[in-house]
Amino acid sequence: MWRSLAALLLLGSPALAQGNATAYEALRVVARQSGRGVLNHIVSITGVQGDPQPEKWKIILEDPGARSARELEVADGRIASEETSGRSVTGSTEGAMIDMARLNLDSTGAYAVASHTAEASHARFATVDYTLRTDERGEPIWIVTLLNKSSRPVGTIYIGATRGTVTRTEGMFAGATMEDVETDYDRGDEEGVIGSVKTRIKHAFHRTQEEARGMFERVKRSFSDFINRE
């Protein structure tokens, strides 16, 4: 519980929140140095070993004029490095552009939702890896991987960046998904001990989803509002 409370305190107090940049803040750096037009070509945003936020963010964007991808590294409030890849990423699921107008969850909010989900699953972790990209439907999604003190993954949580829905977990709740929760718990082929365990897992995942929605309402943050405050 303390991780979730700490995340909410960081969101609510600018003085406490000082530290490594969030994903939104890294995107603002890119917009300032490269022009706001680049925000229409963001493919993915990643950060590793966040505690809770990473020291640097890697932002991949499509360069339509050059038919290639640019990889920017943002650290200490500036673009620290930039590389160009000759391979275009357009056309793949990972290559879909993120619709920034649909972003309602910064990395701080993603951390708060992921922390609460981890606590509900009794998963202990030390740091987190973040990836923001689109899913198979083209919707923005946070993929938050929890790591232990040895930097080994203990679980991964998929969080919709528009509505904050936990759509999938790995390493927690036996890998339950939205599809699992939406099935009938009382089917005839889910009887006995195995069926009882599966039912409890589904109920736990569903309850955690509902709690995560409540957490999202407290931590949601529109990227459009954020970037237009300047």
Explain what the structure shows.
The protein has 230 residues and is of the alpha+beta class. It has one domain (2-119, 134-228). It has helices spanning 2-12, 14-17, 23-34, 107-120, 178-182, 192-219, 223-228, and strands at 42-50, 56-63, 68-75, 78-85, 127-134, 140-147, 153-160, 166-170. An eight-stranded antiparallel sheet has the order 4-3-2-1-5-6-7-8, with helices on one face. α1 runs antiparallel to α4 (107-120) and α4 (107-120) runs antiparallel to α6.
Query: Strand pairing plus helix content: what structural class?
Result: alpha+beta
Q: How many domains comprise the coordinates?
A: 1
Spatial strand arrangement across the major sheet = 4-3-2-1-5-6-7-8
Low-confidence runs of at least 5 consecutive residues: 12-17, 90-94, 180-189
Radius of gyration: 18 Å
Number of helices: 7
Largest sheet: 8 strands, antiparallel
Q: From N to C, what is the helix and strand string?
A: HHHEEEEHEEEEHHH
- From the spread of the alpha carbons, the general shape counts as globular
Mean pLDDT: 80
Number of beta strands: 8
**Termini separation:** 34 Å
| Helix fraction by DSSP (H/I, runs of at least 4) | 25-40%
Percentage beta strand: 25-35%
